[in-house]
Predict the structure of Lytic transglycosylase.
Amino acid sequence: MMLKRAWPLLLIALVALQAFVRPDANILSVRDDSFHILRRISAGRESPWPAQTGFTRLMATEYQCGFPVRPDLLEPRLSEIISPLRWASERIYQGDLVDAAMANLSPWQVRLWQLRYGLGLWSGRLDDGPVSPQKVDEARRFAILYYQMRLRQVACDTARGMR
């Protein structure tokens, strides 16, 4: 009987303790959130790009639209689109890693980790990531392929409009 009356106070104490320890997480709203899953995947913190600079120059010779293209005329338009394309391909990469992680984890394991996060007991290194290196490479290849395809499409459409 005493536990029945103490239950609301224990819940309030738990939520208050959690708010001081981890204010950005809420134990009352734990859900399957891919952001929290992605936090513990070490590959998700990396960029899919082989190098941070010079990647667009590498592909400048690959524009093949079926007609001659002058990359120097396309440069102003491509410089506008490169940043959003890069952002989109990084989101695809991270999303693929989250999907691969979710496929390898049992639902109770995800809930347990989310509960630990909500309580402020998150160590940040529960494991080095449930995603195999092959899945990371596959996600990286797909992100770069997406970037190349969209960049080529924008380049060809721009060149077609300039003809």
